[in-house]
Amino acid sequence: MKDIMRSAVTLRSFSYEPTGLMVAAPTTSLPECIGGERNWDYRFSWIRDTSYVIEALSMLGYHKTATKFLYDIMEIIKDEGKIRTIYPINLKDDLNEITLDYDGYLGSKPVRAGNLAVNQLQLDQYGSIINAIYHLCNAGGLINSYLRDFVKETADKITEKWSEPDSSIWEFRTEPRHYVYSKVMCWMGIDRAIKIGKMQ
Predict the structure, then answer these.
(1) 182 and which of 29, 87, 90, 123 could share a cystine (Cβ 3.0–4.6 Å)?
(2) Residue-level pLDDT at 80
(3) Which CATH architecture is the domain 2-198 placed in?
């Protein structure tokens, strides 16, 4: 249990208080393999990662913290009228990617600032946030009309976009393709939306 609590504290520490957004990692350009080129800047907020945290905190009974994370990101999405793939945690920084003239971890290159995934469609994000809402509500979180409206709007967006090719969780820098993971997450979003709709 001690390790679980330490993990929960670590997750909480990755949030940026002024906006409530959670950084995916405090680092940039750690290589997926030493000497490889898939070295990305993850010092930004992804809906997917935030959704995982909301889900984990909900299951641990931290409903207040999970609710705050959820409502902070919902407010940003509502204000912008869409779900973006990536958000700068201060909502101001430029996400355009540049390559820096430095060696990274164990000499790995390139070292990047910014992330081109900001321009990608990642369909799983829609299902991820609805699934997080489902887990929060299922764990005893408050269901209200604001939450229901958000779920409905997001589910409607899934019905519009699910058949499109995307870049999915892997964020390959190739032409968008049809990924099973993305389609399953779209299905999950609709499934969870229906279940939320039946909750009292």
Answers:
(1) 123
(2) 92
(3) Alpha/alpha barrel (1.50)
